[in-house]
Q: What sequence folds into this?
């Protein structure tokens, strides 16, 4: 069975890339002396040689999920540490599987979050629900979808563009952007 990520392999690959980059340094005889006027083509060539290409050594092909910047920029600063842990677990259990909802129980939160207090977890979930960051799924009759495996939570990710965020980090209201 192949490991997903090996620190040893990563280190070896980093050393190999560093050695390759040192071997590819330009010949110092071809570098013009100070005070010499350069043509625009020569300047462009030198700029290209001086700026090393971006090399991304860390390749993650599976077993990860993306979290939009808006979560870290707008939502988590408003949460306590415990609320953030619960919120991130909900994101992982929903968006990590390509859905905007998940079924979770207090016991599952205890096992996966490191928080052992049922009261603390319930308080954090209630705060997320009250803040309308997370919603409980309810059926036509208004009853929450609960069973022995937990409650179904809907975890929307706000769709806020960077251009609609004011300098203080809060989302702009439509009246703010029309001025």
A:
């Amino acid at each position: 069975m192949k490991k997903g990520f090996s620190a040893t392999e990563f280190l070896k690959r980093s050393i190999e890339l560093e050695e390759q980059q040192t071997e590819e340094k330009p010949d110092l005889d071809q570098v013009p002396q100070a005070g010499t006027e350069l043509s625009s083509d020569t300047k462009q060539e030198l700029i290209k040689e001086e700026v090393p290409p971006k090399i991304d050594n860390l390749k993650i092909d599976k077993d990860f999920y993306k979290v939009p910047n808006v979560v870290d920029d707008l939502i988590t600063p408003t949460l306590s540490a415990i609320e953030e842990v619960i919120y991130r677990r909900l994101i992982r259990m929903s968006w990590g599987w390509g859905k905007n909802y998940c079924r979770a129980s207090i016991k599952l939160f205890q096992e996966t979050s490191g928080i052992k207090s049922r009261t603390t977890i319930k308080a954090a979930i209630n705060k997320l629900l009250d803040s309308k960051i997370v919603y409980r799924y309810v059926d036509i009759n208004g009853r929450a979808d609960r069973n022995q495996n937990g409650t179904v939570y809907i975890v929307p990710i706000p769709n806020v563009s960077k251009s609609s965020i004011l300098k203080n980090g809060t989302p702009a209201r439509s009246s703010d952007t029309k001025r």
